[in-house]
Structure formats: C-alpha cells, structure tokens
Amino acid sequence: MRKKKKLGLTTTIFIALLLGVITGIALHSFLPTGYIRDTVIINGVLDLIGSGFIRGMQMLVVPLVFCSLVCGSMAIGDTKKLGKVGIYTILFYLVTTAIAITVSLLIANFLHPGRNLDMSSIAITEVKVSETTGVKDTILSIIPTNPFRALADGTMLAIIFFALFVGVLLAGMGKKSETLANIFSQGNDLMMNMTMAIMKAAPIGVFCLIAKTFGSLGYEAIAPMLKYIIVVFIALIIQCFGVYQVFLFVFTRLNPLRFIQKFFPVMAFAFSTATSNATIPLSIETLEEKLGVSRQISSFTIPLGATINMDGTAIMQGVAVVFVAEAFGILLEPIDYLTVILTATLASIGTAGVPGVGLITLSMVFHSVGLPVEGIGLIMGIDRIVDMARTAVNITGDAVCTTIVANKNGRLDRTIFGQNK
Questions:
Q1: Which UniProt keywords are given for this protein, alphabetically ordered (predicted)?
Q2: Are residues 105 and 341 in contact, defined by beta-carbon separation less than 8 angstroms?
Q3: Residue 61 near residue 153 (C-beta atoms within 8 A)
Q4: Maximum Cα–Cα distance for the chain, whole Å?
Q5: Using CA atoms, how far apart are residues 223 and 24, in angstroms rounded to an integer?
Q6: Residue 79: CB partners within 8 Å, gap ≥ 6?
C-alpha cells in the first residue's frame, strides 16, 4: 500500500492563501457591516492571529540578518572576493531599481491611471509624513555610532555595515577567531531553526492576513482605484517576468521558465505576507536546494537585497506619482521624471522590508517634485494588495541577482538547477 504524499509547506501556504481570499470575499459579501464582522472577526480574531504571525517573523529579523551577513562575509573569506561580490550585488540592485521606476513611469504615462478621476468620490485619508533625510545624513547613518542601538532599533543599513565589518575581520583573523566564528555560525543555525519553527504556523498566519485584507476591502472599495492597481500590476509583471528573466538568461544562460517554476512558492509566500524579511530563510533554502546556489553567496546577497533592493516599491512610487499628478491636475516636466527616478532609487536603499513601508518613502518622492502628500491618502486603502505584489517582485529580484552572482563566482550547481524537484 502506497503512503500518501504529505503536502509540503509551500503548497499548504498557497492553499491557505486561496482559502483566505475566498473567506475574505465571503465575509465582505454575506456578513453585514457591524460589530461581529468588523470588530470581532476581521479586526479581532483574524488581525490578532495574522499580526501575531508577522510579529513572530519580525522578532527574528535583526538577529537573523546580522548573523547571516557575518557568516556570509566570513564564508566568502577573501576580502577582495567579498568586495567583488558586494559591488556586483549592489550594482545589480541599483540598476534594476532605476529600470523599474523608468518602466513604471513610461507605462503610467501611456495608460494615464489618474485621468478623469472624480476626486469628490474618494475620501482622502490624513497622512502623517516624517521629515525627509538629506543625502549626506543618509550616507552617514550607514555607520552606526552605537551598533547595539542600531540592533535594538532595527536600523538595517547600520546593521549591515557592522555585520560585514565584523565578518570580514573575523575571516582575516583565521584560527584566532575560531571560537567567536563558531558562536556566530551556531547563532545563524539557531535563527534558521527558529524561523522554520515559526514557519510551521505560516499557513494559519497567511490565511488570516489574506482573509482580513479581502474582508475589509471587498470588491467595492477597490473599484475607484482599479485602474491604478492594474497599471502597477502591469509594471510589476514586466519587471518580474521580463526584465529579471532577461538578466538571468543573458548572464547565466539558465532557463527562466524553470527558475520561475522552482521559485514560485517563495513568491507566493512573499505575496501573502507582504514582507521581504520574512522570506529570507525560505529564499536561501529554495536557492540552495532547488536552484543549486551556494549558501555562501545567498547568505550574503539575500539579506542585503531584503534591505536595499526594492524594485516593486519603486514601481509603485512611479505609478503613484503619475496617478496623483493627474488626479490633482499637476503637469510634470521631463526634469521632474528624472528627479523621481533618482529619488526613488535612493529612497529604496535602506527601506525596511516590512509591510506598508513604501508609503513612508513615497512622501520623500512626492516632496522631491512638489506633489501634495495628501495624495498618498488616495491609495492608502488599497496599498495592502499592491504591497503584496511588489514584495513578490522584490524577493524575485534578490533571487535572480543571487543566482547571477553565484554563477559568476563558480558557486552555482547547474545539475541541481536542472533537476525536477
């Protein structure tokens, strides 16, 4: 008698995502608005479990990124090689982000998402905008004055800088640092195990998050913004399945369709959680076991990408600029579009990989071209749906970059990539 094949975690997560959509739409369509539906079910039980799962993942982000980058830079060992890997990775991330924002601006100007928008039919939410930071201060903030405070506050660029500094020096010390190197290595293993333990609850968390989103919005709430969503999705699809796959094929000669097939479960998980950081361990595991990418490379490039590679966010910002400009009747000049490209590319660096953070950096982009920040309120209600899609694009870009860098450094096992698993 044949044993039944047990469903894998990624399959279970995907099933939970679909069930969450169905449940959310059912809640919105068949239960009347009131205390039971809105307070007890949607903003009570579903929000409690879903947010609890996200907080559990966020709890591990800082120690996971820190230990992973220390171990990644130690594993690469050679400072010159580490420098080359770092330069290739950062260049890839910056170039693809600039391409992403350019693509979104071109598509938005072609499809005009904000044209003929009836502003009176949409309630503008009051938006609190944090003060923008200058370029000089942004660069200086990379070097932490107190690394322990950076770890406590979750200041990702400062954490990355300190982790790489520690890892490079530990690698250079050789046997002298063996005990401390083992501590970081074991700490990294512990973080991975803790993440996998929390991931066992992922199907429940994903179900609740998706059910809450669709239970709150339904169909009617997103109808006025449907064109905006469609334009963003078109740009995201072009970036994910066009730009990235061209880069992958040109630099590695690997089959893009096989890559998408194998990495799709991670994309689905990123879509459901809307947080790049939560996908770090799953991305590293999938890249190693299904795509043949060495963990030495992925443990360096994936956490780095979760912080500085925000192509999906850049796409949203490009479409939002055109959308709000058209909605408010503001004419943008060519120099304004160039400013948006530069500002959005810089704003993506250091953006935390957590849900909704794109709306914060969007204020910086609006400010750079003189758009009213109140316009952000137009898209706040539907940002969750767009956020999920752009997160999936972000982590796909991280994975493509990692695969290219691994191939260039002879750390890609093509046999594993070609296997059907």
A1: Cell membrane, Membrane, Symport, Transmembrane, Transmembrane helix, Transport
A2: yes
A3: no
A4: 71
A5: 16
A6: 168, 171, 172
Alpha-carbon distance values, 47 to 50, 247, 421 (Å): 5, 39, 35
Written as one string, the DSSP assignment of 275-337 is -TGGGHHHHHHHHHHTS-B-HHHHHHHHHHHHHH--HHHHHHHHHHHHHHHHHTTPPPPHHHH
Burial of 416 (0-12, 13-18, 19+ CB in 10 A): middle
CB atoms within 10 A of CB 138: 15
How does pLDDT run across 270-284, given as a tens digit for each residue? 887 777 777 888 898
Residue of 187, 189, 248, 203 whose CA lies nearest to 50: 203
Burial class (CB in 10 A: 0-12, 13-18, 19+), 55: exposed
| pLDDT tens digits along 330-365 | 888 888 888 788 777 766 654 544 444 455 567 667
Which tens digit of pLDDT belongs to each residue from 120-143? 444 444 444 444 455 567 678 778
**Tokens 């993942």 identify what position?**
57
384 in Cβ contact with 355 (< 8 Å) = yes
Q: Which residues contact 204 (CB under 8 A, 6 or more apart)?
A: 16, 49, 53
Full-model pTM = 0.68
Question: Mind giving me the DSSP string for 57-88?
Answer: HHHHHHHHHHHHHHHHHHHH--HHHHHHHHHH
d(CA 33, CA 201): 29
Q: Which amino acid is at 270?
A: A
Cβ–Cβ < 8 Å for 349, 157: yes
